[in-house]
Amino acid sequence: MLKNQFPIGKFQKPDRYSVEDLNTWIDVIEELPDILTTLTTNASAEERHAIYREGSFDVQTLIHHIADSHMHGFIRTKQTLTEDHPFVTSFLQDAWAEAPDNQAPLEYSLELIDGMHKRWAILLRDLPIEAFDRTFYHPEEGEGRLADLVAKMAWHGNHHLEHIKLALKEIEES
């Protein structure tokens, strides 16, 4: 494992979950945009291009990656709720990170994350508990439940939030 690859540990798919677990994961999804904005809005050019380990995404790319990945998560959520056991798509995150739109200011993705996460939290909070057992099929991860997806997206946001903090700390200490 590479240094700082999994600073909060690897994702652990839950075998079981409670209403409290769901509420915690939804809270994380809902709160992530404000935390990201607070951390990065006034970041200097040097801070926006800081990395948390050799060869890693920089802060700006991490913000764009979170937007890309969480758009997929939001769409997968809606597919799982509106289709019977949908096949959800994956994406080549490194190729997406090389697309020209990743040169856009990180604020564009912060705005996207903010609106999407607000909608996502509203949607998730309005669901009956049994909706979180609805299933989907992911080509790389196999069978999944909506609860698994929500847990993973909460973890994913915190995972990259920690990467951003590590990158900014590297700049601060240098």
From TrEMBL:
DinB-like domain sequence ranges: 30-164
Ranges that cross the membrane: none
A Pfam family reported for this protein in Swiss-Prot or TrEMBL: DinB_2
Domain of life: Bacteria
Protein name from the UniProt record: DinB-like domain-containing protein
UniProt lineage: Bacteria, Bacillati, Bacillota, Bacilli, Bacillales
